[in-house]
Amino acid sequence: MSARHPDSRLSATMLRGALDGLAAILDERFLHTGGDTAGVFASSDHGDHIGSPPTPRRGTDA
After folding, report:
1. How many other CB atoms sit within 10 Å of the CB of residue 19?
2. What is the pLDDT of residues 21-52, one digit of tens each?
3. Which of 5, 46, 52, 56 is 20 to 30 A from residue 12's alpha carbon, by CA?
4. What is the pTM of this model?
5. pLDDT the model gives residue 43
6. CA dist 30 to 10, 13, 27, 62, Å?
7. Residue 41: which residues within 8 A CB-CB, separation 6 or more?
8. pLDDT at residue 4 in the model
9. 39/35 Cα distance (integer angstroms)
10. d(CA 2, CA 24)
11. 51 phi and psi, to 5 degrees?
């Protein structure tokens, strides 16, 4: 379904562009999946990335 208000459509377009850019950077620098935006975010969600072990979060004992 498409938003009826022009400002909502513009905001959605800008958000999509920002997410596409973020996915490209994450994939280029860390994940190396070569996938599309949805694939990059799905990969990072599930820890399916290639590289070094995850860095422990701040405030944890790990």
Report:
1. 14
2. 999 999 999 889 999 999 999 886 665 555 55
3. 46
4. 0.66
5. 85
6. 30, 25, 6, 21
7. 19, 23
8. 84
9. 5
10. 25
11. 145, -155
